[in-house]
Every structure is written in structure tokens, then in C-alpha cells.
Amino acid sequence: MFHNFNEKMSKLCHAVNGKKVILWGWGMSGKFIYLYFKGLNRKIECVIDDGFKTELDILGVKSHHALEYYDPETTVILVTPYKGADDIKILCREYGFYDVILIRRLFYENEPFRELDYYPWIEYEYGLNLVQGRTIEEAEPGAEGCKTEEFHDYWPGKGIVLESVLSNFMFDEKDAVFDFGCGKGASFFMFAKAGVLRGGGIEFDRNLYDLAVENTDKLNRVMGSRFSVSCGDAATYTDIDEYNYFYMFDPFDGECFATVIGNIEDSYRRRLRKIVLIYMAPTCHKQVLEHGMFKFSYQVKSLFTVTKTANIYVLE
Question: In this predicted model, which residue has the larger pLDDT, 134 or 146?
């Protein structure tokens, strides 16, 4: 599923091989490149973004005047914005830099308006619907009695963030993941990429559920995986004994959240096994620990505001 993406990324890595790399653009696509290169132990010498003046000292983001300190013959500039990309290229040439790569055109060709991340790439490559959010007000409940006032808006987050969390685990054929509030099933693509080929999820919004079915069908055909989705209330769904990894991206809070945690604990009592809970953008940390069964293991931080942290809990 990521074959063409990997080919383009390999082309990019060859283009910067043996040279210093300057990243122009500290938006979503810039952060993706930064994290991807970090995963390859590839150093970004400098990040340039005149629009992020408040982050200059905190994150080391500099203005374009920093180009004066680098040698154009030994440096490649990766430009991640799509608006004004040609103007940025002209400005780089004024400083003597001709080795300038417009990242979004490399990956998306005639659709450079797309952000660079795994989910937009999958949309582009396979014609799926993953990225666009949906508010609770727009939701069409697929089951009666859902406490929608406790449910949160849908947003898939960033695939690169989930990948950085999953890189802390080693998965094998016995592992299976369940996503509470799975939305369009975006997380399944990253779990499959990480080596998990069996999983399930539940989504209360009928519209999101229909899209999740379409997306997982494509995932299963391409990857040979076995992911499935149910439509209903997460609080009443208890058929989870076959799963040992559970994932949440801040899907709900209140009584619904407490009930789901209780259901996982009950599942553990029915079938003893090590359970890992990956809780992205956590807002109910105390409720996870309330019964003393789950233990907080560690926290993974990211560069993105909404998905700033992911908490890892263990039950064994």
C-alpha cells in the first residue's frame, strides 16, 4: 500500500545523500519531513519559516536570512509549503541555492495542495476518504441511546504521529488491535504498516462507519489483512476478548469512557493476557487508572498540538 510512497521517499533520500539538508516550512508537511528524517537518523541542519516567529527560540526555526551561513554547493533545500513555493525557490536562488526540491510536487504532482502525511497520501493513491473531519452535530447515530454529548468530533490525526508511537512496539501474528471510536478506520492503515494485520473497531456515526467499511475493504485487499468495523455504541460493545491492543484517539469522555475501560478490564478477567492501551490526546487519564488494574507505562510526545501526547497503559 505504501510502495509508491516509499519509492518517492527513497528518491528524496538519494537526492540529499551526502549533503546538508535545510527544511523550509514548519507547517504540517514540514513536521512530517522532520519526523520522517528523524526516524532515519538523518539530520535536518536548519528549519526556515518566517511565519513562525514565536517558535524561533523554542524550536530553532529561523528566518530565511539563515541561508547566508550555508554553502549552496553542499546543501539541499526541501520546500514543504505549496502556496508561494515558486517564490521561495526564486528567493533561494538569490542566495545561490539551486538544489531546491518542492516536496509536495514530488509526491502529489498536480495536487500539491495536499498535506504530506500518510493519510493524505492514501487518499491520493487509492481514492479513499480519510482526512476530512466531521463534527458531532453532523453525526448520524447508528444505534439508539448513544450519549452523543460525551462524544467528540472526528479527526484522524497524523499518521506520522501514530507511526512514531507504534515504533515502540514489536508486533507478531498473534496481535490484534481494537479501535474505540474508529471513525473512517484511518488508524488501521498505520497498524497494518507497523505489522498488525488483524483488528476491529466500532463507530457510532453511520456515515463514518460506511466510509470505514469502504476503507478497510481496500486495506484488506491490498495488504492481505483482516480488519473489520461495527456500527454502534462503544459503551455496549463487549466482544473484545480476541484483542490485546486497544487504541483511542480521544473519542469520548464521561460515563461512556469509564464504561469502555471497565469493559476492557472485564475482558481481561475473562481471558488473561497482556493488554496495551494506546490513548492518543488523553483527557481521561485518571479514569483509566481508577480501578487500579491499568498501570501507566510511559508517554510519547509529538510536535503536533492536538496530538501532543499519547499515553501508554498496560494491564497484565
Answer: 134
